[in-house]
Description:
Layout: H1 10-19, H2 28-31, E1 46-51, H3 56-66, E2 70-76, H4 86-91, E3 96-98, H5 101-108, E4 114-117, H6 125-133, E5 137-140, H7 148-161, E6 165-167, H8 175-185, E7 192-199, H9 226-230, H10 257-266, H11 268-273, E8 281-288, E9 298-305, E10 315-321, E11 328-329, E12 337-338, E13 345-346, E14 350-351, E15 356-361, E16 365-368, E17 376-378, H12 380-386, H13 400-408, H14 418-437, E18 440-444, E19 449-450, H15 454-460
Parallel strand pairs: 1-2, 1-4, 2-3, 4-5, 5-6, 7-10
Antiparallel strand pairs: 7-15, 8-9, 8-18, 9-10, 11-14, 12-13, 15-16, 16-17, 18-19
Helix pairs in contact: 6-7, 7-14, 10-14, 14-15
Amino acid sequence: MPRRKAQTSRRDFLKSSAAFGALTILPSYVALGKQSSTGLAPSEKVNLAVIGIGNQGGSDLKTLFGSGHCNVVALCDIDLKGGHTQQAQQIHRDARAFNDFRVMFDAMADEIDAVLIATPDHSHFAATMLAMSLGKHVYVEKPLAHTFGQCERMIDLAARSGVATQMGNQGHSGANYFQFKAWLEAGVIKDVTRITAHMNKPRRWHGWGTNVTAYPTEPMPAGIDWDQWYDVVAAEHPFSKRLHPQEWRSWFDYGSGAFGDWGPHLLDTCHRFLELGLPETISAVRRDGANPLVFPQKSTIRFSFPDRGPDLPACDVTWYDGRNNMPELEAEYSDPRVNKETGETTLNSTKLTYPGKVIYSKDLVFKGASHGSPLTIAPRAKYMDMRKSLPRFSQKNSNHYANFLLACKGEEETRSPFSVSGELSQMFNLGVITQRLGGDIKFDRKSKQITNNKVAQALIDPAPRKGWEEFYAL
C-alpha cells in the first residue's frame, strides 16, 4: 500500500506552534473543519498503529487484524520487554516498534491511517488527541478518558477533525443495540423510570480494604518507560506490580474501577436510546471499605436524570458493584418457584446472578446481561405471551471492530463514536468522583459544573502534568 503524506507531522506542528508563540496550531484540515487527511478506496486495507499492545490491547489487535480489513504497521508500548507484550510483537514482526507514541507519529505519521489505543484509562487522552489532530481514525478502549474534561475535549476535536471514532464497548454492535433501537421505535420500550445495573464479580482491589495507606514501591524491571506511563496525569508514584501491567484499574489516580470498566457494557444502550445525557444528582448510597486511594470494596451509586420529553420521564439509574452487593428483581416480576417437596408456588424476589441490568418502565420490565446480550421481558410468562408480536431486528451486522475499520474506509458509520460514547463516559467520570468522595453531588447539566462540592469540581478537569499541556490545547 503506498504511503500517504500526512497534512503535518508532529515535529512541523510543534515548530509552527513555536513560531506563533502559542502551544498549538491545528493542522489546516482540522482548523477549517475538513475531513480526515486519509482517504481509502474500499479495496484497500487500513494501515493500523497500536498503542498499548498487551492484555486488552493484544486482544483488540487480534480481532481487528482477524477482520481482514487492516495491515498492522506500528506497535507502541511503554514495556516492550514485558511478557504481556511479546505475542503481538512476534505475530507482527514487520511492524515498527516504539516506546513512545509521540516518537511513533514523528517517524511514520504518513504511513498510518488509524490507531488503536488500549492503554490504561488515565493515558487514553494524549495519544487520542494527537492522532485525531493528525487526521488519524481512532478506536479507543473504554471508558473514553479518565476525566470529564478530557472527554469534553475529545468530543470536540473528533467533531472538528472529521475522523472516524469508536469506543471499545464491543456490545454496542451486538444484538442488544439493534434490539433496543427496534423495540424503542415500536413503542415496546417507553416510559422508563428506573434502571439497576450490577457487576459483582471479584475485582483486583477486593481484599485490600482500608489497609492501603500509600502506594507500594518495587524494583522496576528493565525496559519500562515509567515517566511516559504517567502520561498527562500529575500524580506520580513509584513502580509496583500493583500498578503495572494490570492493577492500575484499582486506583483512583489511574483507573475507573468496576463502574468505568463494566458500565460501558451494561448501560450503553439505555444511555443512548433513552437519551439520558448527564445527571442532575449523583448519590453515594453505599461505600463499604472506602479508601482515599483505591475503590471501595462495595459501592452503590444512584444517578438522577430529569424528564427529557415525551416517553422519556425522569429516571433513576442505580449501579451496584462489590461481592454480594446486588439488587433484587421485584417479586411481581419474578418467575414462579415451585417447591418440589410441597408443590407450593412462590414469587419471592429473585437475585440476579450475572453482571446485568433491569429496566423498569410503567408497563413492562426488561432484564438483560452485559455486552450485546439481548433483553427479555420479566416475568418469563409475560415474555412468552408477547414474543410473537415483538419487533424483529437485524442480527447480521459487522462486529464492533469491523464496523470501525469499514468506517475508516467510508463504508459504514461507527456505532459508538465519541459524540455518543463521550457523554456516556462522562457519566462514569461523575460516578467515580462520587465513589471517591461520598455524599451527594449536584451537577448543572447546562454549565457542566458540580455546584455543591469544590473538591469534586476540581476533579472534573484537573491540570495536566508539566510538559503535557500541549495536548489540552489541540
